[in-house]
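3.2 Worked example (two chains)
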Amino acid sequence: MTATPTLSTSSDPEKNPAVISEARSPSPNVIHPPLDRTAETRLKRKLDLRILPVLWVLYLVNFVDRANIGNAKIQGMEKELDLYGQRFNIAVWVFNLGYLVAGVPLIIAFKKYGPKSLAVSMFCWGITVIGCGLVKNFQGLVACRLLEGMAEAPYIPGAAYLIGAYYKKDEYLTRYVFFCTAGIIAGAFNGFLSSLIAKMDGTGGYGAWRWIFIIEGIITIVVSLGSFFVIPPFPEDCTFLAPEEKELLLARTRADGGDVTNDDLSVRRVLHDLKDWKIWTAVLMHLGVTENANSIANFQPTILKGLGYTATQAQIHTIPVYLVGAAFSVIFAYLSEYLRQRYFFYLLGWAVLATGLIVEIAQPNAAGVRYMGMFFMASGAYLAMPISIVWIAINVGKGYKRSIALGAIINFGTAGAFVSSNVFLKREEPKFHTGFSTGLGLACMGATAASVMYVGCMLENKKRDERRKELPAVLDEGMVVDLGEKHPDFRYSL
């Protein structure tokens, strides 16, 4: 492809009214014809079948492993390991400490060594999950959960990066939300699987809670070994596309803006990228809803058991909550991408989440009403979470900065779990007034941060529009290549 960009008038809010329409090249005055839309459609269909299913299955396993501690708790773990007071909360909290410590370094390693590193990470966390089922005391559980958090840390930001590498800005969100439904479905699947495994209580001298960890850990290891051979590489290294398809793929990603091909990494570079205000604003957005999502994953079985259900009934009743949350997030994420609006749909997720939290704080006497509140919480949180991640990903260009941004938002944003694991107090079980009140406060913080992101990006786009008028209509791309979001024609998505 040897074409220079043409600048066309467009109302696309993702870019400047002067948009780079085709692949860039330093050769002046050569215009490449528009990309073949039919070929693009075929390419996207092929990518959807090759990229998303693999990552979806791996995330399903990932979420089952991180959330199974809530299911194990009500199947006898709390009593056998003497998890009095806040000990269970500490076991939940320390997982996220591992996540926080290892997140950014491991996502940088992912960018450097490639996607197959995710399979290695998965194998490691599978071992730690089995370890959780074999521990003899609280201290052992804490150690295994810490190591599990460290091993899991690169998976979600790595998968988010990989999806964004293959798709354009206006295709990213729905694909990422589809990916995220694996985590939501895993919550439902976890309840069902745990209710089945509970029947193994006493087998081999192990309690049901131990078998939950052991069986799910073995599944993880088996899946990790198979996934090493099927995890897709970065686009420039892919071999599953025909040469003309690969050429079209790379042309699409270059034309989408923010392209970075010659990207070097240094400690100074990482520290510089982390100074971007957008990254930390997105961290607050993500933290505000992730705290509530973690509350659902880790404490919903306990809450439902407190409403009068048996342990098995509580496991089963988690399933509809997750399924409704998945459907809600997919439908409204599609509308968000179709309308190219992230901010207003983040606020929609916040409003639905806040409604559920207010129901739980009000503590109505009817168990069915409190159960309804869980549906609102799950639906709102599972819509706002992926929007916060995709919004920052498409607003920082590509290359290492995108990997650093994703590592920061997902791993620092997940610090919301630090809060949820310490405000859902044992003495308040199952009402958890402090936990739900804190969740509402953090959700409002997230909505405020989203408003800051929206206004800040809108003002910056106006400045860029003014500066662009001072430049030539057709740019010499040899002079501005690899600028990422600093490219004169890059515009922030709203």
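3.2.1 Second chain
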Amino acid sequence: MDVNAAVAAAAAIAGVLTGVIAMLAFRFSEREQKRPTRTSLHTDPVLPPGVDTVLSVLRSSAVVLDEADAVVKASSAAYALGLVRGGKLAVEPMMKMARETRRDGEIRQVELDLPRRGTGRGEALAVSARVAPLGSRLVLLLVEDLTEARRIEAVRRDFVANVSHELKTPVGALSLLSEAVMGASDDPEAVERFAGRMQIEATRLTNLVQELIDLSRVQNDDPLEDAEPVRVDELVAEAVDRCRHQAGTKQITMAAGGTAELRVWGNRGQLAAALGNLVENAVNYSPARTRVGIAARRVTAPGGDNIEIAVTDQGIGISDKDKERIFERFYRVDPARSRQTGGTGLGLAIVKHVAASHGGEVTVWSSEGQGSTFTLRLPEAGASRDRADPHPDLDDEDGQPHPDPSPYGPYDPLPAPEVLP
């Protein structure tokens, strides 16, 4: 009996000890599970409340870095600019700024030129980077793309410089000519000659100011707010009347033809100015006793038909390098000839803006010594004006694409032209 009692007491004591040890082990395990680990501190940091929502609505590219320089949060724009790659900030100057800000808590800002991702032409991406501390461990990087703003500023600067130069020439000429008139008051022939020159310079100055106003208007106004169906034959007749005197002086024959009863959708005044500029250029840059042709036709395009108005001349033609720039403001193929004809270098720029604002385009075919064909392509009135592609490729009637931007070729787009006196 004594032996059995001793065995039972030993078993009871062992059971109690086992239970106590199991309970302690369970509580220790729970405590360890609740304690944050070193890995979770570094790989799963928590953004302060509301920061994630704010970053999602910012226009700037946003990147949040932790104390190990790992990316905690990055906007889609940051990936698009190539700032974040493989979970790391890929721009070393920005990484250096982030480390300095983490060390001393100061906000830093700098403008950088970065290589544009995905291009091999060495184009630079201008950005403004701003780094600020976010809480005690995180750093916020905001990057603003300044590329477009810098391009617009460069265009504005060039435009002001060109306008200043163009205005300076006739104003200076008028000043000198007025002095010459005063000095030749006793010479009627000289006064008459100088007065004629003053009229020419005054006309040039007036034309320049008017075209600056026209260019500003077509860039700022929405032509489709006051759009209406416009008859193409009326636009052609107005353009011919505008240039009839210059053409008669040079004995240039003007011929109009093509499909009748066509209509385009847009602002009548702007369309008339654009077509008038094309016809005026054709007359000014054509030799004497040649012909200028104007033809209109309908072409089928996805989303609705287009109307093509082609202006063809037998002029000096345009070189390949000049064709890439002729629609730039103030660009002249032959500056000396432009000054003789009173050109301002803004006519084709106005045509380009009018065509684009009406959902169309203007193209050019030209060969030196053979002449040029400018084609104004616009949506037909009644066709859909909300097109997925506003500049579709044109097809011939047999479904084959045109081999050249101008389907009319070097000359004679009119099978049976009507000669206008």
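3.3 Remarks
The longest strand covers residues 124-134.
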